[in-house]
Amino acid sequence: MSSKAGGKQKPLKQPRKDKVELDEVDKQNQQKKKDDEKALKELRAKASQKGAFGGTGLKKSGKK
To answer: What is the CA 6 to chain-centroid distance, rounded?
Structure first.
């Protein structure tokens, strides 16, 4: 009782997307986005080195 249709079906192949030609404005926007992501990544790394309170510390009054 074996059948060829048993099991998981293969998905249909998707058509390839044509390469989009970018003009100068698009290239500048992509470069700006990459630069912003890089700067944000550096800021996150720098902030994680300082600790939970950003290096300022907590002032405790000593009273309870």
So the answer is: 39
Q: Residue 25: which H helix or E strand, with range?
A: helix 24-50
The count of residues in the chain is 64
Q: How many CA atoms lie within 13 A of 41 on its CB side?
A: 6
**Tokens representing residue 5 in the block:** 């249709």
Q: What pTM, to 2 d.p., does this model score? A: 0.45
Structure tokens at 2: 């074996």
What is the rounded distance in angstroms from the CA atom of residue 64 to the CA atom of residue 62? 7
Q: Tell me, what DSSP letter sits at residue 53?
A: T
Structure confidence by residue, pLDDT tens digits, 37-60: 999 999 988 887 766 555 556 666
Written as six digits, the tokens of 56 are 């300022």
